[in-house]
Design brief:
With 201 residues, the chain is of the alpha/beta class. It has one domain: P-loop containing nucleotide triphosphate hydrolases (Rossmann fold, 3-Layer(aba) Sandwich), CATH 3.40.50.300. The protein contains nine helices and five strands. It has helices at 15-24, 32-39, 45-54, 67-74, 78-105, 137-148, 152-160, 165-171, 182-195, and strands spanning 3-9, 28-31, 110-114, 129-134, 174-177. A five-stranded parallel β-sheet has the order 2-3-1-4-5, sandwiched between helices. GO terms for molecular function: ATP binding; dephospho-CoA kinase activity.
């Protein structure tokens, strides 16, 4: 019997850091962002649908989707964001389910799904337990500005495009507070996994 854990957080909350910690424990991680990138590569069904809806102007010279250009459209236009999600999300779900099944066939007892929009996209049915990586609003905004070299307005728009972390806390089974040091975050994760009876190194 495999336990499927849904790992989520807000943009720049440190979810990728916790995801890396799982990998260091030799626990399989299926990354929704990676699957989303693969789902929109040239030749994939979602790629053709996106071009049909958004036009060829979102393409780079090599024919691949210009992700920053597409991102600037969807972060400021709700209806365009919803349209893109309708195209990409079913493909991502299909790809993730295939990876879960493969991991189960390999006899893996724990599988982590790293899904930024776990709650927004109503994907909790795919997992048994949920972990939210949390930071306070000011920390989240500053990390996003520093990491992505964004203006304050662009950073705020990206944060607003997701469900507030305060709302996600109410939905998660467990919360990891990532306002502190890496060591503090790692301790919270290992303590949590021990409580769930999962071996952690």
């Amino acid at each position: 019997m495999s336990l499927v854990i849904g790992l989520t957080g807000g943009i720049a909350s440190g979810k990728s850091t916790v995801s890396k910690m799982f990998k260091e424990m030799d626990i399989s991680v299926v990354d929704a962002d990676v699957e989303a990138r693969l789902a929109v590569e040239k030749g994939e069904p979602a790629y053709n649908k996106i071009i049909a809806e958004f036009g060829a102007e979102i393409l780079m010279e090599n024919g691949e989707i210009d992700r920053p250009k597409l991102g600037s459209i969807i972060f400021h236009q709700v209806e365009k964001r919803l349209l893109l999600n309708e195209i990409v999300h079913p493909e991502v779900r299909r790809r993730m389910m295939e990876q879960i099944e493969a991991a189960k066939q390999n006899g893996e007892s724990v599988i982590v799904l790293d899904i930024p929009l776990l709650f927004e996209s109503k994907l909790t049915y795919m997992v048994d337990k949920t972990i939210l990586v949390y930071v306070d609003d000011d920390t989240q905004l500053q990390r996003l500005i520093d990491r992505n070299q964004l203006s304050n307005d662009d950073a705020e728009a990206r944060v607003r495009s997701q469900m507030p972390l305060a709302n996600k806390i109410k939905l998660a089974d467990e919360v990891i507070d990532n306002n502190g040091t890496l060591e503090e975050t790692k301790k919270q994760l290992t303590d949590l996994l021990n409580r769930w009876g999962i071996y952690s190194k």
